[in-house]
Amino acid sequence: MKTTAKLDEEAGGYILNGAKMWITNGTLTGKETGDIFLIYARTGEGRADITQFVVERGTEGFNLGQKIEDKLGMRASMTAELVFDNVLIPANNIVGEVNGATLCMMRNLEIERIALAAMALGIARRCIDDTKRYAAERTAFGKDLFSFGQMQRHIAESYSEYMAGRCYVYGFCNGVDFLTPGKG
């Protein structure tokens, strides 16, 4: 993590510098940042010395960097770079403890991974449904494609892989414990 926040006791807060890339909803219009962000920044020399801050749109030195387009994944989400240039963050905008946000950050990553896995399941299911629909509508040699063994095999394999993934994701979600440290 290269984004840093240094304590400035005279100013009554932390000076935030750096950038965050690939921020979902970093911009909603393509011209300005979103309204409010939770930002992680390195606040000490230790590996786990990370603090979480609230940063609001319009804060001096907080700007929109590049808008990221032509993505392969979540194309509908507005993704951008956020840039911090000597941004003064008041001490009361700290979330949790100074140097204590590492566990929270890791938990957020775990939740995001579960959400992405669930999205992938939805996409896979839609692909299977569309394939089945198309195979029932399209004809070749006087029969619908669904009546051919090879097509049935491909759809069945896709469905069994989807169900295996679904069981894995559901099983993981049933066993995850985000409230106990080290059990995520």
From TrEMBL:
Residue ranges constituting the Acyl-CoA oxidase/dehydrogenase middle domain according to the UniProt record:
1-87
The record places domain Acyl-CoA dehydrogenase/oxidase C-terminal at: 105-176
GO biological process entries? L-leucine catabolic process
Which Pfam family is one of this chain's hits? Acyl-CoA_dh_1
Q: Which cofactor does it need?
A: FAD
The entry's keywords: FAD, Flavoprotein, Oxidoreductase
Superkingdom of the source species:
Eukaryota
- List the protein's name: Acyl-CoA dehydrogenase/oxidase C-terminal domain-containing protein
